[in-house]
Design brief:
By secondary structure, this protein is of the alpha/beta class. It has four domains: 19-134, 3 Solenoid (UDP N-Acetylglucosamine Acyltransferase, domain 1); 143-334, 3-Layer(aba) Sandwich (Alpha-D-Glucose-1,6-Bisphosphate, Chain A, domain 3), CATH 3.40.120.10; 341-590, Alpha-D-Glucose-1,6-Bisphosphate, Chain A, domain 3 (3-Layer(aba) Sandwich), CATH 3.40.120.10; 592-725, 2-Layer Sandwich (TATA-Binding Protein). It contains 23 helices and 35 strands. It has a seven-stranded mixed beta sheet, sandwiched between helices. A seven-stranded antiparallel beta sheet has the order 28-29-32-33-34-27-35. It is elongated, with a radius of gyration of 29 Å. It starts with a helix and ends with a strand. The relative contact order is 0.08. One of its GO terms (molecular function) is phosphoglucomutase activity. Keywords: Isomerase, Magnesium, Metal-binding, Nucleotidyltransferase, Phosphoprotein, Transferase.
Length: 726
């Protein structure tokens, strides 16, 4: 202890008297100590109950079945039996006991079968019990299957994403799920009798994975499983259900979301899984780190192999009972669409949005891109707000997103941008008829959004800034005293910073990944610090949302824009104010942050890592470099020190800041399913009123040339052009 204290400056030791401990050599000793045969006195010292007259019960537990502490805890998940009146207890074989078992005198229990048996509740007085031929747990019987670790099961920014075939390989999925349950238990989450939420974006292997997760969950003690109808559960709806669903005693401790977000789906494409905590947010790094460590050393999984196939096509409740009637699992298929809709109705003024939609001069189109958003769009936009059903395109979820790439950007949302009258660079094009007033799209799991006006593309960074500037027209913000804080990822443009400065809002710049916004949102409740809410958050990668949930929310962003449009168009007699009009006025007031992102997808990982190392090594030599009218003022790599919990996130993006305030950022994406994706972000601020409407490519041409020549990106990764430009 002394050596340990000396190793850490300012450290000290807490001296605990030896008498506060009782000797525990075997699990049966722990079994006795945890029972009511012992009490803890006012001095916090364990001592035998006075009625025992100093005599410790004699307990003999099967040394093979109760060898490890985890074996004992699994067999006594319902609590330790009463031993205060017990003289002697012998248990042979695996027997599940609980606090409802009261042993008096001398009791012997035998189970010679090869499966665990549950000792029924009751008082057992000087008796011998043979459970060998008793009914077992039947479909709820947990079995242990041996396994070996798979490499590379480290959760990324939003969970674990790999090719579908990888997830279907042997026990790959099983290992990750079991490693998660083990990590949760190690962090003090009580799984016994708990509720788990499961669903996904509907991609290939979704339904099979739900069945696998359910079987492993039951084996690990979960006794209520909530599943989205048809296995569908959008990421924002998952967060809403975790946070809002009542009654409290049925509140889920967490959720598995089966999604690879915007990545393609299908047998030859990507699959993914992520765990969200009970607060509705992505698993914190403290948990994902433990999960990863578990995946590297896992030797077995627990699974209820005989659990019947769960029907997920209809809303309803199913009860699966054990053969002996001692236990049961409740499976509830829920309408997550209704859950999400209820929450959004409390956030926005649906009456005003309905009035907007009812205007003869208003029209819109919404593209679900054959992801999970389709049913939500029908219920919220069409049924609740009156948007014509024919305005909802690609609204049927498909296992392979109908062969498309469910990523809402100018490259992949081809049908939408053609309808809205813009090209893949976001510039207006000639159309035979006037396009709709408003357009939007969602990705596979519905947490992302793309906003379009008539012949106008609104970048995610500008969208965030405009919403921040108009937050008071959204009831959720207005009724809480107004927007208090904004948070953006570091690569996102500084457009919202200008709004925050003018409106005196708190501003947070975080690494990429919605989980980093969670601490800002939960600062007061979880950490006992300043309350920064209500909070508006956004990422340049088409993610926008608020602290109504703990995930980005594609539908929320669309409704926010409809609320803003409704505000400007309350009088149907006046000329319609379009998205473009609103954004142009915003630029005139705050200036414009010209911004774009180059994505280089499918880069060989060694080449991608070599490029990033090269940029780190060149940092010092780049300072002072002059190219195409730009001079590098500083070169660094973004490190984030969380002001809420003090955690540090390193290597979050390589930056080159120019003397005029322009900047270039390079980072490796954490969401790629295979290979690596290098993202290059470019930003230039413009205040000149005569230069606010230039095409983005024209405004950023010299900065792009500077970035590519300075970095040697094309030469180092062997790709001449980016896969996507947004």
């Amino acid at each position: 202890m002394g050596a340990a204290v000396e190793s850490f400056t300012g450290a000290g030791a807490v001296v605990v008297p030896r008498r506060r401990f009782a000797p525990v050599k075997k699990c049966q000793d722990l079994f006795i100590l945890r029972s009511d045969a012992y009490t803890v006195n006012s001095a916090m010292i364990p001592e035998l109950d006075a009625s025992r007259n100093g005599i410790v019960p004699i307990v003999s537990l099967d040394s093979k079945k109760y060898k490890l502490v985890q074996h004992l805890e699994a067999a006594t998940a319902g609590g330790i039996p009463s031993l205060v009146q017990c003289d002697r207890l012998s248990v042979k074989g695996l027997v599940y006991m609980s606090r409802k078992n009261i042993f008096v005198g001398s009791v012997s229990i035998v189970n010679s079968s090869d499966e665990p048996k549950v000792l029924p509740a009751g008082v057992y007085h000087d008796t011998d019990i043979d459970l060998t031929d008793a009914p077992g747990l039947g479909p709820l019987r947990p079995v242990t299957e041996e396994t070996t670790p798979f490499e590379g099961q480290k959760p990324g920014t939003s969970g674990l994403r790999k090719k579908t075939a990888v997830f279907m390989d042997g026990l790959y999925l099983h290992n990750f799920v079991q490693s998660t349950f083990t990590a949760l238990r190690d962090m003090g989450i009580n799984l016994h009798g708990g509720t788990l939420l499961v669903g996904g974006d509907g991609r290939y292997y979704n339904d099979t994975a739900i069945q696998v997760i359910s079987k492993i969950a039951v084996a690990n003690g979960v006794r209520r499983i909530l599943i989205g109808k048809d296995g569908l559960l959008s990421t924002p709806a998952t967060s809403a259900v975790l946070r809002e669903r009542v009654p409290v005693w049925q509140k889920a401790f967490g959720a598995f979301i089966l999604t690879a977000s915007h990545n393609p789906g299908g047998p030859e494409e990507d699959f993914g899984i992520k765990y969200n905590a009970g607060n509705g947010g992505p698993a914190p790094e403290s948990l994902t780190g433990k999960i990863f460590e578990n995946t590297k050393k896992i030797q077995s999984i627990k699974i209820c192999s005989d659990l019947p196939e769960i029907a997920i096509g209809e809303v309803g409740v199913t009860k699966i009972e054990s053969a002996d009637g001692s236990d049961a699992v409740v499976v509830e298929v829920i309408d997550s669409v209704e859950e999400h809709k209820k929450l959004l109705e409390s956030v926005f003024d649906f009456d005003k949005i309905r009035a907007l939609v009812a205007r003869e001069d208003f029209s819109m189109v919404y593209d679900s891109m054959h992801g999970v958003q389709g049913p939500y769009a029908k219920a919220i936009l069409a049924e609740a707000l009156g948007v014509p059903m024919e305005s909802l395109i690609n609204a049927e979820p498909k296992e392979d997103f109908n062969g498309g790439h469910a990523d809402p950007n100018l490259t992949y949302a081809k049908e939408l941008i053609e309808i809205m009258g813009v090209d893949k660079s976001g510039n207006a094009v000639l159309t035979e008829e006037a396009p709709p007033c408003f357009g939007a799209a969602a990705d596979g799991d519905a947490d992302r959004n793309m906003i379009l006006g008539q012949k106008f593309f609104c970048s995610p960074s500008d969208s965030l800034a405009v919403i921040a500037a108009h937050a008071d027209v959204i009831p959720y913000f207005a009724q809480q005293g107004g927007l208090c804080s904004v948070a953006r990822s570091m690569p996102t443009s500084g457009a919202v910073d200008l709004v925050a400065k003018k409106l005196n809002l708190n501003l947070f710049e975080t690494p990429t990944g919605w989980k980093y916004f969670g601490n800002v949102m939960d600062s007061a409740v979880v950490y006992g610090k300043e309350n920064y809410g209500p909070v508006l958050c956004g990422e340049e990668s088409f993610g926008t949302g608020s602290d109504h949930i703990r995930e980005k929310d594609g539908m929320w962003a669309v409704l926010a824009w409809l609320q803003i449009l409704a505000h400007y168009n309350e009088d149907p007699a006046k000329e319609f104010v379009h998205v473009r009009d609103i954004v142009l006025e915003h630029w005139k007031k705050f200036g414009r942050n010209y911004y774009c992102r180059y994505d280089y997808e499918g880069v060989e990982k060694p080449k991608a890592e070599a490029f990033m190392d090269h940029m780190r090594a060149q940092a010092e030599s780049h300072v002072g470099l002059s190219m195409h009218g730009y001079i590098v003022a500083s070169a660094d790599e973004f490190t984030y020190c969380d002001p809420i919990d003090g955690s540090i996130a390193k290597r979050q993006g390589i930056r080159r800041l120019m003397t005029d305030g322009s900047r270039v950022v390079w980072r490796l994406s954490g969401t790629a399913g295979a290979g690596a994706t290098i993202r290059m972000y470019l930003e230039k601020y413009e205040q000149d009123a005569e230069k606010l409407e230039l095409p983005t490519a024209e405004a950023l041409k010299e900065l792009v040339d500077t970035a590519l020549e300075m970095s040697n990106l094309r030469e180092m990764i062997g790709m001449e052009n980016p896969t996507v430009i947004t």
